[in-house]
Design a protein that fits this description.
about 240 residues, alpha/beta, Rossmann fold, 2 domains, four-stranded parallel beta sheet, 9 helices, 8 strands, about 45% helix, binds [(4R)-2,5-dioxoimidazolidin-4-yl]acetic acid
Length: about 240
């Protein structure tokens, strides 16, 4: 099977780390391709970034359809473009936030989310409601480490770990969810340090896609997620025309 992991930001060094984390859990029969779009923001830390990431994500899904991808991971904690991707993909599409929250909900009564900048916590709260996880999520905490500093700042792991501990004690939760794809390679260290399950969405989403494809399950195409109506788009988006 072929799982395509899309890092919606254009920072390929982060994409390489995400790909390594996905491959580390994928089964022997699963090949993983991790990509960044050719266009978009270098990191996603605002609604503006998230909106501008979506065309690039959809372009990668279209390429995946041409290349025969069996399923997709959207490797950004805001799950940007997830619904649109489900309309144009033939295989399942899973976002790392959705996969991480569902995984965490199977490991305890409640979980805390630790993400990057405080300004992104509102979006994460929206996703808890969207995924039916508002009750299970006891708190969302920002470590205030910018996305790209997770790799460049030597203190990043220590800072994120400290925020995870604060979150556990403030929330009284059982599990921690890492709220950024850029934290994927910190997961094992943090879990060993704090002694509770720590869920990385990249691994959770990769294995969720692998499981769905193994069960020959995919997005229902009868209604909301059927192919979008044929339409011509203009200007910079002309290439997204669906005129079949
Ligand atoms: C992510 N941004 O996972 C999100 C994290 C966030 O570029 N990759 C990004 O803070 O929303």
């Amino acid at each position: 099977m072929f799982v395509k992991v899309v890092n919606p930001n254009t920072t390929w060094s982060m994409t390489a780390r995400i790909g390594a984390c996905a491959r580390a859990v994928a089964g022997p029969g699963t090949s993983v391709e991790a990509v960044s779009p050719a266009m978009g923001p270098p990191s996603i830390e605002s609604h503006y970034d998230e909106a501008l990431a979506v065309p690039g994500i959809l372009e990668e899904i279209r390429k995946g359809e041409r290349d025969g991808a069996d399923g997709y991971v959207i490797a950004c904690f805001g799950d940007p473009g997830l619904d649109a991707a489900r309309e144009i993909a033939s295989g399942p599409v899973v976002g790392i936030a959705e996969a991480a929250m569902h995984t965490a909900s199977m490991l305890g009564r409640s979980f805390s989310i630790v993400t990057t900048l405080g300004r992104t916590t509102g979006r994460a709260w929206d996703l808890t409601r969207r995924y039916g996880m508002r009750e299970a999520c006891r708190g969302i905490h920002a470590c205030e480490v910018p996305v790209l500093a997770l790799d460049s700042d030597p203190d990043a792991c220590k800072i994120v770990t400290g925020t995870c501990l604060d979150a556990l004690y403030e929330d009284g939760s059982d599990v921690v969810v890492l709220g950024c794809a850029g934290m994927a390679d910190l997961c094992a260290r943090i879990s060993a340090d704090i002694g509770v399950p720590v869920v990385d969405g990249v691994a959770a989403a990769t294995l969720t896609v692998q499981s769905l494809v193994t069960m020959r399950l995919t997005t229902g195409k009868r209604g909301e997620f059927s192919a979008p109506p044929p339409k011509r788009y203009s200007g910079l988006l002309e290439g997204f025309t669906t005129d079949r």
